[in-house]
Amino acid sequence: QVQLVESGGGLVQAGGSLRLSCEASDNIFNFGAMAWYRQAPGNQRELVARINDVGRINYADSAKGRFTISRDGGLNTMDLQMNDLKSEDTGVYYCNANVLSDNNWGQGTQVTVSS
User: Fold this and answer.
1) Residue 84: CA count within 13 A, CB half-sphere
2) Burial track 1-20 (b if 16+ CB lie within 10 A, e otherwise)
3) 23-46: per-residue pLDDT in tens?
4) In the chain, how many H helices and how many E strands?
5) How many CA atoms within 13 Å lie on the side-chain side of 31?
6) Per-residue confidence at 83, pLDDT binned at 50, 70, 90?
7) Alpha-carbon distance 6 to 37, whole Å?
8) 78 and 22 Cβ atoms separated by less than 8 Å
């Protein structure tokens, strides 16, 4: 079972930045796609950004131009740099990794953007 641990969440003012990190317990060279999801109170979990094993990246429309996803095989981490944060970015951010067709989730990290 792959363990994914998120960090970097917190409280930030609108217009500010945060960098989230997801550390994996296994070598991410063995992983397929990795992604960040977000769940706001009362809402369904939604995809924010996704990066596959060859570096192809997709962003939600709300994240384009503001967020940057990356993965580092040497550190076994995946990061999400979030700039120009808005109140609607508030939520719990989850790391997701597809490993041999298994869907793995972290425990989530809270991001709160105050307006």
Assistant:
1) 7
2) ebebebebbeebeeeeebeb
3) 999 999 889 999 999 999 999 999
4) 0, 11
5) 30
6) very high
7) 12
8) yes
